[in-house]
Design a protein that fits this description.
DHBP_synth_RibB-like_a/b_dom; globular; EC 2.7.7.87; DHBP synthase; 4-stranded parallel sheet; 29% helix; alpha/beta; 9-stranded mixed sheet; 10 helices
Length: 329
């Protein structure tokens, strides 16, 4: 795997969103990357039409070039210059944009998106974010490529502090928008041949999408990497992960869910609960920050209590499974 580019003498500037627009625009126009808040997680944003900027995203994250990026837009008019919308995808965009839904669509011929964004695919992943990201794209007048603002394969940042701790020595600006609301990356779906496939579960549940689409959401058939977040090992802390535990082993940290504890929980090296009441939306919001905090405890393994698979639980379990997957040495 490509190693992240380091700028050891540099310390990122951190500005609140209401103070950061001018500085962010200047950096983006110069082909730099900027860490920005979105409703899902923080993104590492660069001008999606600028090859130098897109290359800098990959270099900063240490991200493999075969792993495509999401292009973020500020309007349907901008989206339609980039991709071709079928009726089902358009209906989903109208229902969930702006918001945590990414659509994989045929890439429109003549688009000014740099080829590095699509990683050689004839499709492109598009999302319309809320808040500062949307305002920034509209002011720039061009789409932004913006994967999660973290080193490739590591835990996604949901606060400016987490982003700065990981990438602060490699970038010039982190825009502080507070803790993200959703806490998980966007759901990614693809409409093709009258069917709708889930490529990555995320901040909108499958049930919500099915209610709008009027059709079942098929799960991915392992056809290969078609969108971000599909690599087997991803979202990983430094510690090993052990999932669906009923009994804690000596020396492990414990990531809990709900009111009932695993046996031996009282002896955990560290303990955090995703949601004491078993609320999946709260659990999703806390997932990455709690994983990071337990990783800092020094425990060699983080044990995780079972999380149900319904609703947002599907996305939570997807992230946990990828965090626990075998890793490249």
């Amino acid at each position: 795997m490509r190693r992240p580019t380091k700028r050891s003498s540099q310390v990122a500037e951190i500005l609140m969103g209401n103070q950061a627009m001018e500085r962010a625009l200047a950096l983006l126009a110069a082909g730099e990357v900027v860490a920005i808040p979105t409703e899902t997680v923080y993104g590492l944003a660069g001008d999606a039409t600028n090859g130098q900027a897109v290359a800098r995203i990959f270099e900063t994250k240490g991200r493999p070039h075969f792993n495509p990026l999401i292009a973020h837009v500020a309007s349907m008019a901008m989206a339609e210059t980039i991709a071709e919308f079928d009726p089902l995808s358009r209906r989903l965009a109208e229902a969930f944009w702006p918001g945590p839904l990414t659509l994989v669509l045929p890439h429109r011929a003549g688009s000014n998106i740099h080829p590095l964004v699509t990683a050689g695919l004839d499709t492109i992943a598009l999302r319309m974010p809320r808040g500062f990201g949307s305002d920034l794209i509209a002011a720039l007048g061009r789409p932004l490529a913006a994967p999660s603002a973290n080193s490739s394969g590591k835990i996604s940042g949901t606060t400016a502090e987490a982003v700065d701790a990981d990438l602060g020595g490699r970038i010039k600006l982190v825009v502080d928008g507070g803790a993200t609301q959703v806490g998980l990356e966007s759901t990614i779906v693809k409409a093709e041949d009258g069917e709708l496939r889930l490529l990555r579960p995320g901040g909108i549940s499958a049930e919500e999408i099915e209610a709008v689409a009027g059709t079942k959401l098929l799960r991915n058939n392992d056809a290969g990497i078609e969108a971000p977040g599909m690599m087997l090992s991803h979202y990983a802390p430094g510690a090993a992960m052990r999932l669906n535990v009923s009994t804690l082993e000596p020396g492990e940290a414990l990531l809990g869910f709900g009111p009932t504890r695993a046996a031996g929980a009282a002896n955990a090296a560290a303990f955090l609960n995703l949601s004491e009441t078993g609320d999946l939306r709260e659990a999703a919001s806390n997932l990455f920050s709690h994983m990071q905090a337990l990783d800092r405890s020094g425990a060699r393994t983080i044990a995780v209590e079972p999380v149900p698979y319904d609703g947002l639980g599907e996305a939570i379990n997807d992230r946990l499974a990828r965090a626990a997957a075998p890793r490249d040495s």
